[in-house]
Predict the structure.
Amino acid sequence: MERKKIKKIVHAEKIAAGEVIERPANVVKELIENSIDAGAREIKILIKNAGKTVIEVIDDGVGIPPEEMEIAFHRHTSSKIRSIKDLESLQTLGFRGEALASIAAISKIQITSRTEENELGTQLILEEGKVIEKKSVSCPRGTDMKVLNLFYNIPARKKFLKSNNTELGHITDIVQRYALANPELHFYYVHDDMQILNCPLSNDLKTTVFHLYGKNIAREMIPFEYTDKEKFIYLHGLLGSPKIARKSRKDSSIFLNKRYIISDIVFKAVQEAYKGTLMVNRHPFFILFLEIDPSHVDFNVHPKKLLVRFEDEELIHSKVHEGVRPFLKKHFMREEKVYVSTELKEFMGTDSSSPKSNTEHAIEEIESGSTVIKQETSMDSLNLPPESIQTSLLDHVRGGLTQKKSNLETLIREKYIVEKNFPRIKLISHTGQLSNKKYILLEGMNQEGEEGFFILDQHAASERITKEYFLELLKSSKKQKQKLIVPLKIEVSPSEKYYLLENLSQFQELGFTFEHFGGNTFILRDVPLVFDKTINPSIIKEIISDITEIGKEHSFSEVKEEIINYLSCHRSIRGGEDLALKDIHELLVNLARCKDPFHCAHGRPVLKFISFKELDKLFKRTG
């Protein structure tokens, strides 16, 4: 094999730019950081075609002197650091000196900037990083950076950009994070002449949350702070109540020294602090600011500066948990204690802390299957023959337990048999529903005529029924929606607002009628027939949020079936829901009438069959 010579890569700057610039959102991030570092009080972000054709960021910061304008677009030039030592005391967001050079290498740029000391500003026009025009212009103090036709000279990279919904979603997420990190700044964000966000400057983080997420979310968030002076750690921000917990952890924000970061260590510490307050598969919603000595953290481990390395990860985890947990106990856990107490009383039928009566001791003996009577009750005192001891003892205690069910079958269905070296067992309920309220046991024959029993997943079965009903409604010419008794006012996030406005007609096809009320507020007037007329606003908010997430990567039409699957899932009987015999009967009849009764909307199994022959083999029976 012939050895090839080492040579300089042609247009290497375009290839290297990919480390920092993968999509329009990366450009927006770098330019916002520059504006913040320049001391701006107002930042305008003007986007066209989801940033693919125009990204313009305008600020009222200190501006760039004329003699430094061209240097700013050279690689590894910066006004923020002078050497690697400066990273140990980093106070700015940008520091690598790569951003402008990288952006310029893969786009056309027009930049106009003026400092306070200069009467006129300077305008540069660049293509592929080279200045093709420079002139003096009249302009306000600050910088106006316009990035045009991103990746125009790298077609291979351009074709990998996602749909406008996806790219705009990433941009909106970036703008929201920086608005949260800097409530003292005014952020104004427009896409294709439609205002997505107008977040006026405010020194109150909760006011910013109100502008981004609406009053219902802001109302459920409580300010907190924690300081460890010895370790030079300061924590503050907003912690959300369990009522606004999310399905995804990505909605929460973590800022380290005012820089937005993604940190498993910090998030895990907060999640653990919330333990005992959240439902299964839910994540806390919070906005957390962590301020530490810059010398104890390395920001320079990720091209986009999202991931960081802490000098002492265990310390950070410990301090975050230590700061958050007591606050949560004080504000969100009192209600939970009452809930748990009620549950225990209901389950035990008595106060577990009070002394047990003789009657209760006797019942425990029967429930455990023991023939030996302990404590206050003995065989001698009852004067009964041994063979009748259990039945007679039950008769003996019935008089004092008028509220308890009165036969052994009921007792063994409700209480476990507890004996040493024996499993905790009891009979299943009369309905066949297992105690975890997810599965139902049924007896019968499969399609081949084999006898045995079935295990039914109640949620999967209900989901299949709802999906087929929903699909029939969409195919038919019948009215597919119903008017709400009282129209709902729904507040959404800026990205959800854009998605709704872009897809109002598609939502209407599914049976939802939304009207834009103004700002981030919509009025919901109709819902699909599969929903109740008295639907809870929080359920609709959750549906919008999840559908927006589903549709981020593709157009609405491409994910329509996935959205129908989601709606079917949301409207179905849940795992953990208690069902009466009539509910189970109705579920089985409706499932039997489905075109595909054996799979849920997502393709998971609904029924599992185990034949008696298989049971015989399991217990090594041959006859």
